[in-house]
């Protein structure tokens, strides 16, 4: 069974790049373009992992994570954050809301692959 | 190998398009992959109809096409424009998708480059040694472009040749450098070529003022793939970060050495004035650094301590030689004259605008914790930490050297006297550090006599010292004394 990953990011470019990497690595993937849609999609599709951007319109990644973690249906889903390099305060907050790990932006294919293998192994 | 599915990122549009053909034109399109199999779009079951027409996609590789089905040929013929429009639309979409993917791939490569540069600049931030810098560069680039071995040849301070190797020996490098392929390479730009043994090489210049005066070379053994033009471009970009950094570090190194040598020259000038104190400033500098090390002062600050120690007696240049070299005891007036030397040191150093803590360290080495020192009579923590160290080093060297009016004291005797001055004259930590540094060097067979053994009662208290800290220090001191007694 192919593992399913939900990518929540408002940038179409990031969604596409991450989608391409996920496809190359043999994962199934779905997208959402903001935190609110991210939570709804997570509840509907129950992915194996959510990759979450932080700054997004309508609802940011922290709030969406809080919703996912508060909902018994989705609380078990691990969440990997995208953080901009050097923003330590983001990392701290992401940890507080229950984030599992961090990926630096700009995205590196190698880093993403390693993180995925670590989390989904 | 890419397949049709790779180019259909979003199938909802295809669904709509196919649905439209079905409802308004009675044509059932089926998506076919390169192997001729039907690709299900919306889980609709395959239909079996009499007439069908297959149109392959117009793409740079064979990835499939659409099979249009209907009840009879006439329907297909009547709707040929709709069929054509459908296939053209999908062709356009595929082309667009291909371009988007290529763009995304390029973005990913650029983003990798940016990541590398960000990580590299974090790693090289604060590096002050060329050797450390070059080793980081070799390590990081080799890792990034998957090189099996690599080396850097560049010039350090005073244009001295420097070489750094990773997974290769200097001998092997000189063998490679003798190869014709290597010699003939343009050393002014980043290039890829192949060695006689078939390994792939990527060479980039290291430039100084636009001219190549060094190079870095990365190798892949012949079993592996050759370096790509992308990797060449990548290293070419990084070269622009590396070269100015090496240039700066080179200058920094030269300046540091110049600075230290200038200070040493000054110290030699003082020492030359008085044959009895010959080498005193150098020994005090060495001892001060040893004490500082024993006190766990960071390396970067030890150099400042060393500089201050070299200059501690600089002001003696202003004192008459007849007083400095007098073979008998000094008169009160002569001693008052000698006591002016820290003030002269201060005056001489002022125009250099050294950091105040370095000047203070040099000027305050005759101050005493109890305030009975000179020139200012500073007390306790008013005295610079470095000055407390230099004070101990100074007095130890003075006592263990011959003087016109007395012979050198033994190390043991000198330490005895210094230990007796703890808390009044000398800083306890500095004295302990002196003893442990001497012990480490094996230069002392210091046997503590009972009257030096630390006892709380006969040591005056300094109010500002925290009691707990003091007790911890006492324990440490007793431990040390016992250790020395044992050997």
The separation of the N and C termini of chain B measures: 76 Å
CATH class of the largest domain in chain B: Mainly Alpha
Kindly, what is the distance between the CA atoms of the first and last residues of chain A, rounded to a whole number of angstroms? 13 Å
Supply the number of structural domains of chain A.
Answer: 1
Summarize the structure.
The complex is a heterodimer of chains A (121) and B (487). Chain A is α/β, with parallel strands linked by helices.
Describe the structure.
The complex is a heterodimer of chains A (121) and B (487). With 121 residues, chain A is of the alpha/beta class. Chain A has one domain: 3-Layer(aba) Sandwich (Rossmann fold), CATH 3.40.50. Chain A has five helices and five strands. In chain A, strand 4, helix 4 and strand 5 form a beta-alpha-beta unit. In chain A, helix 2 runs parallel beside helix 3. The mean pLDDT of chain A is 87. With 487 residues, chain B is α+β, with helices and mostly antiparallel strands. Chain B folds into three domains: 104 residues, no CATH class; 119 residues, Beta-Lactamase (2-Layer Sandwich); 213 residues, Hypothetical protein af1432. Chain B is built from 18 helices and nine strands. Chain B has a five-stranded antiparallel sheet with strand order 6-5-9-8-7, covered by helices on one side. Chain B is elongated. About 4% of the residues of chain B have low confidence. The interface between A and B is medium-sized, with 15 and 14 residues.
Descriptive terms for the model:
A: 121 residues; alpha/beta; Rossmann fold; 5-stranded parallel beta sheet; B: 487 residues; alpha+beta; Beta-Lactamase; Hypothetical protein af1432; 3 domains; 5-stranded antiparallel beta sheet; 4-stranded antiparallel beta sheet; elongated
């Amino acid at each position: 069974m192919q593992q399913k990953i939900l990518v929540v990011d408002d940038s179409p470019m990031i969604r596409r790049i991450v989608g391409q990497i996920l496809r190359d690595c043999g994962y199934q993937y779905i997208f959402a373009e903001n935190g609110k849609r991210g939570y709804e999609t997570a509840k509907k599709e129950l992915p194996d992992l959510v990759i979450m951007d932080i700054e997004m319109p309508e609802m940011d990644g922290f709030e969406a994570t809080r919703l996912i973690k508060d909902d018994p249906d989705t609380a078990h889903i691990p969440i990997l954050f995208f953080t901009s390099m050097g923003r330590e305060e983001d990392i701290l907050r992401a940890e507080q809301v229950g984030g599992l790990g961090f990926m630096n932006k700009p995205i590196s294919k190698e880093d993403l692959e390693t993180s995925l293998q670590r989390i989904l192994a | 190998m890419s397949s049709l599915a790779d180019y259909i990122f979003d199938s909802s549009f295809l669904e709509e398009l196919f649905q439209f053909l079905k409802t308004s034109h009675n044509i059932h399109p089926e998506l076919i992959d390169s192997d001729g199999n039907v690709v299900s779009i919306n889980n609709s079951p395959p239909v079996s109809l009499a007439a069908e027409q297959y149109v392959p996609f117009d793409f740079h590789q064979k990835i499939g096409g659409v099979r249009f089905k209907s009840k009879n040929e006439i329907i297909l013929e009547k709707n040929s424009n709709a069929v054509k429009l459908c296939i053209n639309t999908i062709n356009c979409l595929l082309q667009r998708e291909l371009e988007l993917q290529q763009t995304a791939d390029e973005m990913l490569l650029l983003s990798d480059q940016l990541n590398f540069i960000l990580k590299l600049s974090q790693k090289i931030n604060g590096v002050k040694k060329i050797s450390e810098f070059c080793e980081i560069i070799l390590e990081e680039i080799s890792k990034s472009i998957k090189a099996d071995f690599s080396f850097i040849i560049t010039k350090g301070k005073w244009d001295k040749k420097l070489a750094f190797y990773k997974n290769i020996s200097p001998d092997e490098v000189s063998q490679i450098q003798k190869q014709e392929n290597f010699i003939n390479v343009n050393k002014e730009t980043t290039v890829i070529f192949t060695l006689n043994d078939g390994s792939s090489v990527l060479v980039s210049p290291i430039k100084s003022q636009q001219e190549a005066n060094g190079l870095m070379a990365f190798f892949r053994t012949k079993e592996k793939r050759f370096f790509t033009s992308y990797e060449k471009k990548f290293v070419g970009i990084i070269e622009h970060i590396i070269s100015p950094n090496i240039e700066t570090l080179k200058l920094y190194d030269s300046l540091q050495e110049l600075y230290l040598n200038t200070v040493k020259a000054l110290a030699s000038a003082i020492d030359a004035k008085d044959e009895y104190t010959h080498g005193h400033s150098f020994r005090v500098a060495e001892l001060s650094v040893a004490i500082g090390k024993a006190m766990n002062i960071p390396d970067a600050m030890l150099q400042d301590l060393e500089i201050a120690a070299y200059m501690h007696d600089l002001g003696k240049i202003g004192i008459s030689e007849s007083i400095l070299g007098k073979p008998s005891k000094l008169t009160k007036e002569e001693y008052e004259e000698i006591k002016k030397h820290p003030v002269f040191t201060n005056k001489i150093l002022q125009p250099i605008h050294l950091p105040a803590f370095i000047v203070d360290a040099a000027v305050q080495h005759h101050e005493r914790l109890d305030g009975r020192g000179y020139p200012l009579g500073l007390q306790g923590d008013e005295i610079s930490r470095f000055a407390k160290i230099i004070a101990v080093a100074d007095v130890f060297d003075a006592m263990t050297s011959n003087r016109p009016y007395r012979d050198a004291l033994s190390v043991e005797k000198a330490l005895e006297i210094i230990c007796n001055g703890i808390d009044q004259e000398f800083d306890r930590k500095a004295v302990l550090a002196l003893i442990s540094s001497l012990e480490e060097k094996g230069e002392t067979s210091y046997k503590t006599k009972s009257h030096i053994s630390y006892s709380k009662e006969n040591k005056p208290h300094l109010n500002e010292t925290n009691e707990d800290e003091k007790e911890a220090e006492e324990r440490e001191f007793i431990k040390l004394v016992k250790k020395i007694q044992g050997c």
